[in-house]
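Q: Can I see a sequence and its folded structure?
A: Here is a first one.
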Amino acid sequence: MAFTPSKDHKRHARELKKIEKRRAREEAREEKLRAQQAAEEAAAKEAAEKAEQQERAREEAEFEAELKAEEEAKRKAEGGA
């Protein structure tokens, strides 16, 4: 006579399967959240670096403009004297 699992055993197996699925969903959700947070951090870092580069470029442009104005003023003073 063949052995057939009891209903209780089958119920227990179904419950374990549900628990495993739930755990897998939760892990996937957590992984997705971690990936999203990492992407947000990377975007924030990139934005900060871009802002810093723009600030440096602006300061350099101001410096170049001041230098050019000083050279022109010096040239006019030498030419006018």
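Q: Show me another, different protein.
A: A second, unrelated one:
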Amino acid sequence: MMLRVDFRVRHFITSRHATIGAALIVIALMACNFEPSSVPTVGPYSYLKAVVLAGLLGLLVYFAMTVGNDRLQRLHHFIAYGVLCNILLIELSFRLFPSLVPPKLLALLPSGEHRRIADDLGLMTEASFQGNGLLYSFRPNAAQLSAYPWVAIDQDGFRNPSVPKDWVDVVLFGDSVTFARHARKDLGDLLRDQGISAYNLGMGGYSPFHYRDAYRRYVIDRGLPHGQILIFASFGGTDFADATKYAHVDRGGGDWRDYLGEATAIGPEWPDHQPFWTMAIAARLPAYLRTQLSDIVRGLDQLAGDKADVVLRYTTISVTPQILDLPLLDEFSEGWRDFSLAIDDVVKLAEGANAKVAIILMPNSGLLYRDSISGMDDFKRSLDVRYRTIVGLMEARYRPRGVTILSMAAPLARAVVDRPIVAGPLDFHFNAEGWTVIRDELVTKLGLNARRRADTRPHDLIDASGS
């Protein structure tokens, strides 16, 4: 009997401790969220923060009212054990297999750890990139490319077997789509297979201003003779948004580190000085959720929105309009203004170098899968209008200057029906099969071939300023 009483007393105390501990955690969460919102709507708080604080307060009141209820405290006890076991499991899993940490949560870890894991995962950090001003490229032995052994990096940090010293038929500019880390052969490799010399200056995260900067530094300033440049512009809107991002960072006096926004710790600094990753994540999670609010709202909209199927011969993918749409642009849009300013500079440089220019419009997921989507007729009509608007802006501004505008939307949309040509479902980064389709289209439509312009010498290449 004494043993039973002793066990019940100790069990009651442990259960009470679980309840009190949970209440203390709620108080800590309330303290982390007590700062007034920058855009108050309910008193000093935003609507979302007011709801969160009200929910936490209700939970605190519940714990206070159940301190004397033995049955509920036993429930709290079991829940506490379950939460503790899950926390230990997550902690152990993350420590043994750091690649399991979602990239978006890296900024919640202690600062030294998130930088180390970001390097191992191949994310954009200073340890893997080199740069000057706003222009950057990979370090020649970048750790993040270890998972892609087929990617050869030249001395300047771009995807080429080596830096060309003589005539180049085609110079390629673009972002991560053009860098094509998931493709065992990129466009440069595929062109070289046909005897066409190519120099790939594409890089993940690049904006059109980076195309200009890279063109000037690695081609014009070096006096590298070349016949044609291909600018791979993203229909998905990243080129327009990135151009504006570059312009903002440039006006603020920032450099490539500011542009890339290398992950820094979110929320309180104290988790940097304790050993548990899960504690750091928990402490910084409220601040992180605030920064991700727009993504959360967009995700909820997607879950609640209309759905349809993309029907391909080899798979079927469920989609919503939000993940397929194009940006709405006009000639007064900030994104178009910044994009066109950068491309104007590129065209001027090419004109001084006596090189042809082609803007290759690369499809987003919506254009890639449009004809394979069942239903969503209103969305398709909206997509078509936005597509024609972007093409019209390009043609009106650049065709009079002798620039070729070529869309890859139709040939790639036909190809994706029959076989996988992208890195993953709904992706618009192409594998080697996709780049083969693009190469064949370019060779046919642009008449690409291997030739040497004997009359082009380094001193013929001048700066866009005309000097």
